[in-house]
Structure formats: structure tokens, C-alpha cells
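Researcher: Structure prediction, please.
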Amino acid sequence: MSFPYLADGSYNPNTRFGLSTNPAVVKNEVDRNNTVTQVLSALKLQYQANDWLSFSGSANIDYRNTQDEQYRSAVAAPAQNGWISFANRNVENYQGNLVANATRTFDGVHAVSGFVGTEFRSDYSESQLTRGDGLPGPFFQVLSATSTPTTAAGINSQWKQASYFGNAKYTYDEKYILNVVARYDGNSRFGEDTRWGFFPSVSVGWIISEEDFLDIEAIDQLKLRAGYGTTGNSAIGNFASRGLYSASGSYLGSTGLRPNQLANANLGWEEAQEINIGLDYELFEGRIFGSIDAYQKDNTQLLFDRPLPSSSGYDDITENIGEVRNTGIEFEINTVNVAAAGFRWQSRFNVAFTDNEILELPNGTPIDEDDLFESLQEGKPIGLIQVVRWAGVNPADGRPMWYDADGNITYTPTNSVDAVEYKDGVANVTGGFGNTISYKGFSADAFLQFSFGQWAFPGTDYYFTRTPDFLMNLSTEVNKRWTAPGDITHYPRAMTAGTDFAETANYRTQLSTGSIYNTSYIRLKNVSLNYDLPDRFTQSLGLNNVRLFASAVNLVTWTAWPWYNPEVAADTDDIYGNEVYASYPTERQVNAGIEIQF
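Model: Predicted structure follows.
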């Protein structure tokens, strides 16, 4: 008889049902993963009805199945006498659309184009997990051999969205442009009477450089544009509008049920109304070109979880509450600095200035007013950070110190009383700067990326490196802690839970201005070098082209952020932007190679 998996984890093709007599094949721990992913485009349609009308459509299926199996022998899991678990996960996505496109030109000056269409999407997921404890021996690695079934769990979830959309564009004499877009979307996540939303937008453009009165040789193109439109946001849980029950425990052999979420039949789309004014320019025969934009974006009917009194029996309820305004200016310029004798040097620069402010909350009442990171208050930005002020370490006894609301030293601050409005999680200035140089077959490019203004609390990094309680410290910085009277240091003495905390707050959990860090950075994001061999060499070898290349990504970073990667903090999915947990550093890549075209 043979064993299905060999000692190195590979499959034994000579497997037969039964026991193995070879102890070399026994492993104490085995994790097996088998993932099957299939993406199928079931149908694509293209039909040209005539010279001005066409139809297109598609139907797509994305099906994914993942299976996981874990085995622990009695040696690896003695408390359970070994165990086995099996998990199965399925994801099924269905998407289809149908679009009609039309374009006509009348009298040589009236150009009309547009499309209408419809789209449907369904996203379904399910998972099951089974586990059994207690194995009769190391050679039994199937669920049916376990003595005690411990886990039998399964969940599923689904959301659907249907859409109708259209676009109409009119251009007169290639100078005046009118563009209208409209969407009508329905999403199953919202209440039955509020799940449909209408989102129109309109924009106009004027190509000033085509006017006879603007006869300036230095101006190649000058286009003024303005637009106003609305968009919708449905980024909430699949059942956020429903009243939900959870299965919890059992009574007399029957499963117990309890309510765990309040229904909100009026929950609907979050909407964003944006007005934008911009100018596109091109000067000196294309030597300088770019754009300038200014915008104001008001997000209304915000999707937030409003806290509820504990006496209600619920933690919160998802509602459409409040209004936030985002304003900004964006500037882009591209220049051809030198173009002569086969040598070309181009530069590009862009910068964006942004700001946000909460305009309205229900009855003007703050939400989580004293919360460190998630407080919502009218007139304040989303991402406001409220912490007590750090006062350093007492050199006499090594205790951490803070300031209270009156500016006096305290060892036991209270957030709701002593905290101040410190920083926020908004990056106010972002952008980049790059240069490209080329000469004959050689080219080089470098791009710098920058971000300024955001502050954040590095949760995982902070708890694992900066807290001198030896609970989770993984950094040599713990050696810089206070150890004797007279020491001047940022890190207080090592403290014992219970006894020491009777006289001072826990330094690890009492956050302060000393726990919040600036994520501003300048990063050499991309560098690349390329060289195309001259044709006389490649042709003699019977090749079309030979290119040598080298590139680097995330090569150097200059930052005030003392942790792994400030860009991870800037890209946090948290809507408040001021907390980072379990983030993985962005990798540095260096590549080199040769491309050959036959």
C-alpha cells in the first residue's frame, strides 16, 4: 500500500487506498492549496448596421474555486491529538452589456455622436469550512478518521447591479463642444425604494485657438472647458440596508437566533456633485503643453455607520448622513527643452493641491466627537486626529509624561478632556516631476513622486517597535529606554502591567502627539535606461531590432516617515486616511535584459 503524498510534499502517482508502512512519508504538518481559476468570455457581439450606426455587446463569466486543506499531527497539535480542516471557496461573477453607437456629420460643421446602452452584473461568493480533531495515528489524514467534528461553517453573499446609460456629443465647426452623459443605476445593497439613482453630467468646451481674433503665433492650441456632473457610490456591505439576524448557540437542540443589525429601508446612494473648470494649452509648436484645472466636489448623503446608544442593543446603523466638500487645483506642464542634432530632452511636472471639509452632519451634532481617529465634526476635515500632547520622559523616574488641557504635566491623561486637534489624514500636496533624455539609440528616463501634508498613526509598526514593555517589541530601540535616574530619552522605562500602571497611563496604548508621524515623502519612483542597437548591426544578424534595457522602481525615498514605506500610508483604504495597520512595504525592483525582434 502507498501514501498519497511523499516526504517532500509531492504527490505519489502510485497511490492506493490503505496505509503506508514507510515512516519517511509521514509529516507532522501539511498545508495543501489547490486553486482553479477560469475566466470565460461567453459572447462578444459586433454589428455594423450602416455607415453611422453600430451595435456591440458582451457576456462574461468569471468563475473561481479555491480549496485549502490543513493537517496537523498529534505531535504538532497535542492538545487536539491532531486535526484536519478543509475549506472550499467559490466566486461567481456574471456581467453583460449591450451598446448602440451612432455618429453623423451634417453640412461639414455639425458633428453628432453618442451611444446608449445597458449593463448587468451579479457577484456571488460562498465558502465552507469543516474541521475534525483527534486522529488515530499519523497515517490517517482524512476528515472521516477524526473522532470529534469541531467545525461545520458556511456562508454566502451576493450583490447585483443593473445600469442604463447614454452619451450625446455635439461639436460645431470643430470649435464649440457640448457633451451630455447620464446613468441610471440600481444596486441591491440599498433599500427597495431607494436602490435606483440617476447621475447626469454635462460639459462644454471652447477651442479658443480656432477663433479668428486669437491670431497669436506662439499659441498652437488653447481650449477652455467646464463641466458639472454627479456620480454615485455604493461601497457598503451587501446587506447594509437589511435587518439581520445571526445564528448563535443552541437551545434544546435548536439553533438560537438573535437580531444583530437594524434595517434601514431608506438607505440609498451616496452622491458626489462636482464642478470643474479647466484650460488646455499648447505653445511654441508643441514645445510647451499641459493643463490647469480647478474643481469643487461636494459629497452628499454620505454612507457612514452612525453609532447608537448601547441601550438600543446595537452598535451602529448605516445611514446617509452629512456632506463633505473637496476643493482643489491641479497643474500640469510638459516641455521639450532641447531638440537638436538627434538630441532630445523633455520634462514633465504635475502638482495638485487639495483640501476637504465636513459641511453638514445631522442636526449639526458631531459623530464620535472624542474619537482619536474617526471623529466627524462640522467645519473639520475627514481624518481629524485628536490626541493628548506628549511631554517626554521624566528623567528622575522614567515615567512617561503628557500635558493636560491646561498645559500641566500629567501621568494619567484623559482623551475626552486633554486631547487637542493635532493633524489630519489628508495629503494636501501631491504630484511628480520627470525627465526624459534621448540621443540616437539611447534613452533615459527618471520620475520623482511626492506627497506632503498627511499624518498617520502606524499601528502595527508602533506596537511592534516603539513600546518598551517587552510584550511585542521587535526593535533594538528598546535598548534606548530609560534605565537610570538622569537619563534623557524618548522611551520610558520598561513597565509591568498592573503595578506600574496604577501610577501612570500605559505608554503603549495611551497615544499622543509622539505617536503620530508625518507621511510626507519624495521618491525616485522610476528610472529606466534603453539602448537600441543600430540597424546596420541588427540587419547583418537578420534581426529587426535589438534593445538593451535596465530599470529600477522605488529606488530611493526621502521621507519624515520612520517606518517601512510612507506610500503605503498614503494609499490606505481607510476613508479617514490616518491609521495604518499590517501594511506591507512596497518592493524595490531592479530589472535588466535584452529584447530581440526577429
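Model: Residues 1-26 have pLDDT under 50 and may be disordered.
Researcher: Thanks, that helps.
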